[in-house]
Specification:
Layout (H helix, E strand, L loop, with lengths): L2 E6 L3 H12 L4 E7 L2 H11 L3 E4 L8 H9 L6 E6 L5 H6 L4 E4 L4 H34 L6 H7 L6 E6 L2 E6 L3 E7 L2 E6 L2 E6 L2 H7 L5 E5 L2 E4 L5 E4 L5 E4 L5 E4 L13
Length: 264
């Protein structure tokens, strides 16, 4: 997933360095910069970033003041504080910061902070999705199909995956499924721009999809190998799979062998 980031720092050189580091990283889009708290608040309203990288000691409204102002709004991005002073750490995490990075910024430390932000965004979006599913089920008396129920009612669905869609059951062609990720006791099946929900375990779904060109690239992620258009090597034996402009999936080191035949 691409992180849309806003950077705020009143020191021009520090701001320039941080932006340069971010622009060298995959899946990071610096949507705006600000040299103070007031400017940051205005830019946040315009650009609606996913993540703020905030200096703490800024003139006018400091980094904590920016977060406090946002808490009164209906929009709250994630926050990583980037500062030269370590005495603010406890207060920073009291503001529910994702991370706290000391200057001078180390690239590896910054990457770790961005990884945490992605994880929080991903888990948050899954939680919202599952909450909506639960609410829909309570209202309509429906729930996602389990693998066993799908097979019992659609034994003819060889090479296709049955999923609930409204009052009906839709049969997804395996070749059309792009990727799958786990969300608690549910699987999120991504196909043709839509996300379908199936109630099962990753092991059950892996067995069901064994008829298609799928590989497990993480303990909670499956990908259709035919949908990969580019592979970017990362550090520590990991790599990034590009499915389209907006979809990038990380292959963990433990599952690298599943796509080894695609690497030159």
């Amino acid at each position: 997933m691409t992180l849309r980031v806003l950077v705020a720092d009143d020191e021009p050189l520090a701001l320039e360095l941080l932006v340069a580091l971010l622009r060298d990283m995959a899946d990071v889009d610096v949507v705006a910069t600000a040299s103070g708290g007031r400017e940051a608040l205005k830019a946040i309203q315009v650009h609606r970033p996913d993540l703020l990288l905030l200096d703490i000691e800024m003139p006018g409204i400091n980094g904590f003041g920016v977060v406090e102002a946002l808490q009164a709004d209906d929009y709250m991005p994630l926050v990583i504080f980037v500062t030269a002073f370590n005495q603010y750490a406890v207060q920073a995490f009291d503001k529910n910061a994702v991370d706290y990075i000391l200057k001078p910024v180390d690239v590896g430390r910054l990457e770790k902070g961005l990884f945490r932000a992605r994880e929080r965004l991903l888990h948050g979006s899954k939680a919202q999705l599952l909450s909506a599913i639960t609410a829909m089920g309570l209202q309509q008396g429906q729930r996602p199909l389990s693998v066993q129920e799908a097979l019992e009612h659609h034994s003819e669905a060889v090479g296709r995956l049955p999923v609930r869609q409204g009052d009906a059951v839709k049969l997804l062609e395996l070749d059309d499924i792009e990727w799958v990720d786990a969300a608690g006791d549910y699987m999120c099946v991504h196909s043709a721009g839509e996300t379908h929900i199936l109630r099962c375990t990753m092991k059950q779904l892996s067995e069901r999809l064994s008829l298609g060109p799928f590989a497990r690239i993480h303990r909670s992620t499956l990908v259709n190998l035919n949908k990969i258009i580019e592979i970017t090597p990362l550090t520590k034996g990991e790599c990034l799979l590009h499915l389209d402009e907006n979809t990038r999936l990380k292959v963990s080191r433990n599952y690298r062998s599943s796509i080894q035949h695609l690497l030159v």
